[in-house]
């Protein structure tokens, strides 16, 4: 399987992972998704410790993030004609996707998972992603009956125009995971202003 290499895939379009239309009929004081704090964006000084050995490649089937009550199936995502990452169907609120031409979660390299923050009806699968804390656990079930267990190193938010493709999508010498959704504040005229990105690395596995 082709890995995400030096030529990173284009940034996820902010509009694609959340419309914010439902916010127009609710209070934006209580309706906007949480955003990462500055502290969660700083690198974890212990992030290099506890890294697990890579797993053999196997497509993922489900992602669980207990701290924010995520338990969702995963579908394969490809690239659009413009080179950006495609997204799951907006109507499927509890569905996330993974970049199936890249690294499978648990294998050496950078695996990418993306999902909607909301749709026209309200919050979606990764609505609370910005509230995730460093040290939280992300579990990914795989087709080979193993579960890859990741530990969150940082949670950051980037504006669309300054999205760091290489940092987010670049190759890694160890098994890492990126989880992406819309964020960066919401404007009625332009929609979401950027993306929330979770950085995590493999720290364990079950079923091996």
Layout of helices and strands:
Elements: H1 28-31, H2 38-41, E1 60-65, E2 70-77, E3 96-99, E4 109-115, E5 118-119, E6 122-123, E7 137-142, E8 147-159, H3 165-169, E9 175-187, E10 191-206
Parallel strand pairs: 2-3, 4-9
Antiparallel strand pairs: 1-2, 1-7, 3-4, 5-6, 7-8, 8-10, 9-10
Class from secondary-structure proportions: mainly beta
Count of helix runs: 3
Helix share bin: under 10%
Largest sheet: 8 strands, mixed, barrel
**Mean pLDDT, all residues:** 85
How many extended strands? 10
Name of the CATH class:
Mainly Beta
**Beta fraction of the residues?**
35-45%
Could you give the order of the helices and strands? HHEEEEEEEEHEE
Pfam families: Sortase (PF04203)
Keywords: Hydrolase
GO molecular function: hydrolase activity
Organism: Streptomyces seoulensis
Short description:
This protein is mostly beta strands. It has one domain: Sortase (Sortase, Chain: A, Beta Barrel).
Structure description:
This is Class F sortase. InterPro entries: Sortase (IPR005754), Sortase_dom-sf (IPR023365), Sortase_F (IPR042001). By secondary structure, the protein is mainly beta. The protein has one domain (14-41, 51-206): Sortase, Chain: A (Beta Barrel). The protein is built from three helices and ten strands, in the order ααββββββββαββ. An eight-stranded mixed barrel has the order 1-2-3-4-9-10-8-7. A two-stranded antiparallel sheet has the order 5-6. The longest helix has 5 residues, at 165-169.
Search tags:
Sortase_F; mainly beta; 208 residues; 6% helix; Sortase, Chain: A; globular; two-stranded antiparallel ribbon
């Amino acid at each position: 399987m082709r890995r995400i290499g030096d030529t990173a895939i284009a940034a996820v379009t902010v509009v694609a992972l959340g419309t914010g239309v439902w916010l127009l009929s609710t209070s934006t004081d209580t309706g906007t998704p949480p955003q990462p704090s500055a502290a969660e964006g700083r690198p974890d000084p212990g992030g290099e410790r506890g890294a697990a050995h890579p797993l053999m490649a196997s497509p993922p089937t489900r992602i669980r993030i207990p701290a924010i009550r995520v338990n969702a199936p995963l579908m394969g995502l490809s690239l659009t004609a413009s080179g950006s990452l495609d997204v799951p169907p907006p109507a499927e609120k509890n569905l996330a996707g993974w970049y199936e031409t890249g690294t499978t979660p648990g294998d050496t390299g950078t695996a990418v998972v993306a999902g909607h923050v909301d749709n026209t009806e309200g919050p979606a699968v990764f609505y609370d992603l910005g509230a995730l804390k460093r040290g939280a656990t992300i579990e990914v079930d795989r087709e080979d009956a193993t579960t890859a267990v990741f530990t969150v190193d940082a949670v950051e938010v980037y504006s669309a125009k300054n999205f760091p493709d290489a940092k987010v999508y670049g190759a890694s010498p160890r098994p890492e995971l990126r989880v992406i959704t819309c964020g960066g504040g919401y404007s009625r005229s332009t929609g979401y202003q950027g993306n929330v990105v979770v950085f995590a690395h493999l720290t364990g596995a079950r079923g091996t």
